[in-house]
Amino acid sequence: MSDTPIDRVAKATPPSVASKIRGLSDRTIAWLFVAPTIFLLLAVNIFPLIWTINLSFTNFKANRPNREVDYIGLRNYERILTDGDIWLSMQATAHFLFWTIFLQVLIGFTLAWLINRKFKGNDLWTTLIVLPMMLSPAVVGNFWTFLYQPQIGLFNYGVSFFTGIDPSSFQMIGDVALAPWSIVIVDTWMWTPFVMLICLAGLRSIPDYIYEAAEIDRASKWRQFWTITVPMVLPFLMLAVLFRGIENFKMFDLVVQLTGGGPGSVTELTSINLKREAFEKWRTGYASAYAIILFVTVFGLASIYVKALNKVKER
Amino acid sequence: MSEFVSGLIRFRRGAWEMLASILIAIGVIMLMQPLALWAYTYSFIVTLTGTVMFIVVSHFPE
């Protein structure tokens, strides 16, 4: 009988090593396999987190590493939480988060619902719709700055075509009132396909016999939608909201390319503001405290969300 | 409501997780609202309390 791969490995193992392994319990061997991952997690996630918490209580500046570092207690937190500029940047982030998630869920679900209907060429349509999310955010930010140009931009001409407004009469990026909407539009354009794909997975996981049973019970299409489709797609939708919420809370590249945080600071989201504090003003201790505040907020929201998701799955 | 209160008294996970979630939600709203600076100032302590509470109470019995 030929040897199995396990037999061959056992034979190839030097006797000295084999005798050592034979003496180990299953639990120890399991720990040996898991140890590299745990070490990596500690080195990449836990240690930087603890170090950031430590820095948040100091006046450390990374551009002056030899300067004496003083522990200043909670002063960084106190300054951040009374700073009107950071408060404004939190509001800009809230506006961006709320509207991008709302629009992406609404349009993404509608597209998924339409694509899920069997029609000729729906594979081609799916491919075309998911194209934007395959692009780099830096590229998307760059070419949307051209689309938003008041003189040559296609966006302004599109709006002009439908509304009759003069295309050069408004600036999406340069106007204080319109700039926050310009980043919402681009993010929605780019990431709606992602929500659509998740919803599509949810819609395709609903077995046909449930709808057939509802038809036999003479449930209307409207009732089938609210009592079968929506509840069964809800866990998928909630996952999409979680992913997009966390991603958009730390949105950086697309907005930097598109508006650079301007005009003024109306589109300066917290991640851009944080980067300025950390790597332009070099206030490392202050920026660490800022990062901890954002971390606790995202962590708290994610905890609630995971709990809600588990509840929906249990139903 | 009485079930919620009795859950709190008997240290049950569901009731305490609910309380922690409410605190986190209030904290996040306070952080991002555009109306009062004092609410923004106290938002972090509310969120932090809720988050730490959530981690602790998730080990309570069902």
Major sheet description of chain B: none
Provide the low-confidence segments of chain B as ranges.
Answer: none
* Continuous helix count of chain B: 3
Oligomer: heterodimer
Q: Note the run of SSEs of chain B as H and E.
A: HHH
Secondary structural class of chain A: mainly alpha
Give a structural overview.
- The complex is a heterodimer of chains A (315) and B (62).
- Chain A is mainly α and 315 residues long.
- Chain A contains 14 helices and no strands.
- Chain A has two domains: 51 residues, no CATH class; 237 residues, MetI-like fold (Orthogonal Bundle), CATH 1.10.3720.10.
- Helices cover 71% and strands 0% of the residues of chain A.
- Chain B has one domain.
- Chain B is 79% helix and 0% strand.
- Chain B is built from three helices and no strands.
- The radius of gyration of chain B is 13 Å and the shape is elongated.
- The model of chain B has no long low-confidence stretch (mean pLDDT 88).
- Chains A and B meet through helix 5 and helix 14 of A and helix 2 and helix 3 of B.
Q: Which features does this protein show?
A:
heterodimer; A: 315 residues; mainly alpha; MetI-like fold; 2 domains; 0% strand; B: 62 residues; 3 helices
Fold blueprint:
The complex is a heterodimer of chains A (315) and B (62).
Chain A: H1 5-12, H2 15-22, H3 26-55, H4 75-80, H5 84-115, H6 122-130, H7 137-147, H8 154-163, H9 179-204, H10 208-216, H11 221-249, H12 253-258, H13 270-279, H14 284-314
Chain B: H1 2-9, H2 13-32, H3 37-57
Helix pairs in contact in B: 1-2, 2-3
Brief write-up:
The complex is a heterodimer of chains A (315) and B (62). Chain A is mostly helical and 315 residues long.
